[in-house]
Design goal:
Layout lengths: L6 E5 L4 H12 L4 E5 L7 H11 L9 H6 L8 H10 L8 E4 L2 E4 L7 H4 L1
Parallel strand pairs: 1-2
Antiparallel strand pairs: 1-3, 3-4
Helix pairs in contact: 2-4
């Protein structure tokens, strides 16, 4: 990854793991865009791009505890998962860090090493 490349973090300041990932990125002196996804929820299209960059199914981006707390039902297909996440951003796993065409869920933060090695 080029150091001049913008790094995005889908961040929740209330989450210790998300704060840890933010500190990890700042320590590396990378150009950073912080997206507080609870204040500015990602669109279905943005979520579709994240899924591609993460190389996972939309259902793998879910915080199960929040999903169950809200009493949500699992959708039948990937498109409906994306709509559900866009409507209920609190169920989105965090933090998600994007560097170019790749992304990782930073739980644990060491997973971010894959993006910056």
């Amino acid at each position: 990854m080029s150091v001049s490349q913008l790094v995005q973090i889908y961040h929740n300041p209330q989450c210790a793991k998300s704060r840890e990932a933010l500190a990890y990125i700042k320590e590396r002196g990378l150009e950073l865009q912080v997206i507080e996804y609870l204040k500015t929820p990602p669109s279905v299209e943005e979520l579709r791009e994240l899924v591609k960059k993460l190389c996972i199914a939309p259902s793998s981006m879910i915080r199960a505890k929040e999903f169950h707390r809200l009493g949500l039902q699992p959708p039948a297909d990937a498109a409906r998962w994306l709509e559900l996440i866009a409507k209920h951003p609190e169920i989105l796993e965090r933090p998600i860090v994007v560097a170019g065409e790749r992304a990782r869920i930073g739980r644990p933060v060491e997973r971010l090493n894959e993006l910056f090695s």
